[in-house]
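Sat 14:20. Reprocessing the chain from the morning session after the first attempt stalled halfway. Input below, unchanged.
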Amino acid sequence: MRIGVDACCWSNRRGFGRFTRELLTALAKIDDRNEYRFFVDQQTAIENQFPKNITLVTVSTRVAPTQAASSSGRRSISDLLRMTRSVAKHSIDLFFFPAIYSYFPVWNRAKIAVTIHDMTPARFARSIFPDKKLEFFWNLKEKIALHQSDRIVTVSQYSKQQIMEHRGITESRISVVSEAAGEAFQVLPENEKRVEVLSRFGLTGNRYLLNVGGISPHKNLQALAKAFSQLVQDPSFSEYKLVLAGDFEKDSFYSDYDVLQKLVEQLQIRNRIVFTGYIDDEALAHLYNSAVLFVFPSLQEGFGLPAVEAMACGTPIVASDAGSLPEIIGDAGEFFDPDNSKQMLETIRRVLSDESLRHQMRARGLERVKDFQWEKAARQTLQIFESMITS
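Finished this time. Tokens:
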């Protein structure tokens, strides 16, 4: 079987970029029966390394798809056609989009699988799109993708139900492929690298709460900042800091960073909040390992990969009970209503006050994370491909 893949999201720093890299790398590693052709724009081809046993097809586009498809951009018809025409030149049995984000029409007589990670754009449009025009083009792209696809891939049972509910897709057309933490995320010893990372962000000698991910409005970081400002008024927790690890400079999603900065100033906790910006996996793993607690207050997550990374590093988690997070974290975490700031604060305070509970959560997280493996995800994906061809 010859499998074509849209690998344009390879270099994206958000969750669907990691999903693209990790899943495709795992697929190339386990599958020696099928032939893979990765289609990428020239910028992605130059900036990244790909598995050696695949064929890389580079397409010249005026703007990199991950930039053009951002919250403030729109892909040109000419660039979409360049991708479409390039794929049309190849004999493809099946074409796979690891993210609908960089979708383009496929003219080949091939089976098509499109990954929709979540329904956040449908449920929280104002948190994703800065204006109605960009929302319209996203919905148009999604509509075409859904019409053309033979199979929809998503990353959790929660997202599957959301797609069925919001888009009217039958259950038989949707398959779930899980995600996993990368190899860098594990329990690590305290060493010189740990000291360097903590020193870099002014965390030496400080206890801190950690959040990892985007700075988009639906991540609910304003509510977290408000809860944290009340937490540190308690003398028992007055020495804590809150670390927000996420790219606020080059993120392609609609950002809440400026509003969040103003709120932090109003709450008079500027000296207690650390915005790391983008950091590499090695440094991030040390931040997870040293955090007293990982806090995940999102209004919506399709999967919630940082929760799995936190569990892999042995970091206790308190999280929103919305979206996929209860499904992914299970009994390893403690949960709160993301719309209830008082409950968020009380849950954080309760877990911070109970060292024995945190040890139990750590142990449960390390056990639960064993269920999430990229090789397992790759085998799930391969089974989907084979079922599509034989059906």
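The mean pLDDT is 93.
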